[in-house]
Design brief:
Layout lengths: L3 H12 L4 E3 H7 L5 H13 L3 E6 L5 E6 L1 H5 L1 H32 L4
Antiparallel strand pairs: 1-3, 2-3
Length: 110
């Protein structure tokens, strides 16, 4: 639960109709995630019981992921977390700028 891909995946499924999306829709909905990282993330979420994988033996095969009841029960906590991030994002960005400037200064401007 500690990495950004897990949280982004859960949040994307949270806003999907029926909390269910195809693999390709998840990949397209999360900027910067690789196919491999999404596969690993989904596998971990499935293993932990937060989502279920639906495989349809069509041509081409179709795979969808859906939040379980336990996964859905996590959404209010995630909303609180993402709300906190939205509220504090300017302070986080300022802290990063200050840190980077100080680190750059200590390194002699290199």
């Amino acid at each position: 639960m500690g990495d950004k891909w897990t949280i982004l995946t859960l949040l994307l499924l949270a806003i999907a109709p029926g909390h269910r999306l195809r693999f390709s829709a998840i990949k397209n909905g999360i900027e910067g995630i690789t196919q491999r990282m999404l596969t690993v993330t989904l596998r971990h979420l499935e293993r932990d019981g937060f989502l279920v994988r639906h495989y349809f033996p069509e041509v081409p095969p179709r795979v969808e992921y859906e939040l379980t009841d336990m996964g859905s029960s996590l959404l209010p906590a995630l909303e609180g977390f993402t709300g906190w991030i939205r509220e504090h994002w300017p302070l986080i960005e300022e802290a990063r700028r200050t840190f980077d400037e100080e680190h750059h200064r200590r390194a002699g401007g290199k």
